[in-house]
C-alpha cells in the first residue's frame, strides 16, 4: 500500500514539473516578443539629434541588455528544462525500479504466502497424521487391554472350572472310596462274624472233645463198647474243620474279587476312552507292593490301542487300596484284570 502511494506521488510531481516547464516556455516567449516590440514604437516628434543619438544609444543598450537577459533567461530555462528532464528520467527510473521492486516484493510475498500455506498444510497433515497415529495407538492399546482382560477372565474361568471339576472328581472319588471302605468294613465285619462263629464252633467242638475225653476217662471200661461212636464223633469234627477251611478260602476269594472290581473301576475312571474302543478289551497283569504301590504292569492280550490306554490308566492310578488281611494281600500283589471301555 505504501509503495502504491509513492508511485502516485511521483507521477503527480512529474506532471506538475512538465506543466511548469511548458508554462515557463510560453510566458518567456510572450515577454520576449513584447519586449522586442517596444523599441519599434516610434513617435514622430522633433527632437535634438544628440538627444536622438543618446536615446538610440540607450535603446541599443537596453536592447542588448534585454537580449542578454533573454539569453540568460532562455539558458536558465534550458538548464531548468534539462534538469527537469533529468529529474523526470530519474523519477521515471525510480518509478520503474520501484515498480520492479514492488513486483519482486509481491512475487516474494506471494512465494512466501505459498510457502506459508504449504507449511500450514504440511503442519496440518502432520497434526492429522499425529492425531491418527494417537487414535490408532489408543485403539491398539484398548484392544490389547481388552484382550488381556479377556485372557485373564478365561484363565480365571478355566482355573475355576478345573477347580470345580477337581473338587467334583475328588468328591466322587471320596464317595467311591467311602463306599468301597464301607463295603470292605461290611465284608470285614461279616468275615469277623464268620470267624467268631467258626472260633465259637471250634471252641464248642474243643469243649465237646474235652468233655468227651473226660467221659472217656471216667468210662474207660466202656471205651471199647463206645469206640465206634467216638470214631463217628471225631469224623464229624474233621468234616466241620474242613467246612471252616472252605469258608476261609471263600472269604479270601470274595475279597480278591471285590478288590479286583475296585481296581478295575479305578482304571476305568482314568481310561481315555475313544468311540472305536467300545466292544474291545485288554487283559493286563499288575504287580503291587504290600502297600498297594504299583511295581509293574504288562499286557497279556487284547486290542493294541485299548492295551496302551489301559497301561496309561494303571500308571495314573499308581497306588491301589489294600485290605488288612495278609492272605488277601498275598493274592492281590500279583493280579490279572480285564479292562473293557464302556
UniProtKB/TrEMBL annotation:
Record-annotated membrane-spanning stretches: 6-28
Region of interest called Disordered, as start-end residue ranges on this chain: 62-112, 166-185
Assigned keywords, A-Z: Membrane, Transmembrane, Transmembrane helix
Any one GO cellular component localisation term in the record: membrane
GO process annotations (BP): bacteriocin transport
Basic and acidic residues bias locations: 62-74, 85-112
Molecular functions per Gene Ontology: toxin transmembrane transporter activity
Cross-referenced SUPFAM superfamilies: TolA/TonB C-terminal domain (SSF74653)
Protein name: Cell envelope integrity protein TolA
Amino acid at each position: 500500500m505504501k509503495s502504491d502511494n509513492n508511485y502516485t506521488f511521483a507521477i503527480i510531481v512529474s506532471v506538475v514539473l512538465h506543466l511548469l516547464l511548458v508554462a515557463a516556455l510560453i510566458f518567456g516567449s510572450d515577454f520576449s516578443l513584447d519586449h522586442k516590440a517596444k523599441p519599434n514604437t516610434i513617435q514622430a516628434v522633433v527632437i535634438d539629434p544628440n538627444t536622438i543619438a543618446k536615446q538610440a544609444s540607450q535603446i541599443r543598450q537596453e536592447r542588448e541588455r534585454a537580449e542578454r537577459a533573454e539569453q540568460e533567461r532562455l539558458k536558465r530555462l534550458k538548464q531548468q528544462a534539462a534538469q527537469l528532464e533529468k529529474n523526470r528520467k530519474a523519477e521515471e527510473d525510480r518509478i520503474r525500479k520501484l515498480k520492479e521492486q514492488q513486483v519482486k516484493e509481491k512475487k516474494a510475498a506471494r512465494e512466501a504466502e505459498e510457502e506459508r500455506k504449504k507449511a500450514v498444510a504440511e503442519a496440518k497433515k502432520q497434526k492429522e497424521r499425529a492425531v491418527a497415529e494417537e487414535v490408532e495407538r489408543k485403539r491398539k492399546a484398548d484392544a490389547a487391554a481388552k484382550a488381556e482382560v479377556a485372557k485373564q477372565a478365561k484363565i480365571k474361568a478355566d482355573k475355576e472350572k478345573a477347580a470345580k471339576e477337581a473338587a467334583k472328581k475328588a468328591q466322587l472319588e471320596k464317595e467311591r472310596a467311602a463306599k468301597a471302605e464301607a463295603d470292605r468294613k461290611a465284608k470285614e465285619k461279616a468275615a469277623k462274624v464268620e470267624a467268631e462263629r467258626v472260633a465259637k464252633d471250634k471252641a464248642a467242638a474243643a469243649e465237646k472233645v474235652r468233655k468227651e475225653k473226660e467221659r472217656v476217662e471216667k468210662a474207660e471200661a466202656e471205651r471199647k463198647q463206645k469206640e465206634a461212636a467216638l470214631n463217628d464223633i471225631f469224623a464229624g469234627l474233621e468234616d466241620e474243620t474242613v467246612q471252616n477251611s472252605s469258608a476261609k478260602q471263600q472269604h479270601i476269594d470274595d475279597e480278591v474279587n471285590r478288590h479286583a472290581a475296585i481296581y478295575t473301576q479305578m482304571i476305568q475312571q482314568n481310561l481315555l476312552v475313544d468311540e472305536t474302543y467300545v466292544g474291545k478289551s485288554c487283559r493286563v497283569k499288575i504287580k503291587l507292593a504290600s502297600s498297594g504301590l504299583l511295581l509293574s504292569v504288562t499286557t497279556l492280550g487284547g486290542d493294541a490301542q485299548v492295551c496302551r490306554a489301559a497301561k496309561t490308566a494303571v500308571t495314573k492310578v499308581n497306588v491301589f487300596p489294600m485290605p488288612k488281611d495278609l492272605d488277601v494281600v498275598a493274592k492281590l500283589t500279583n493280579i490279572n484284570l480285564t479292562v473293557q471301555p464302556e
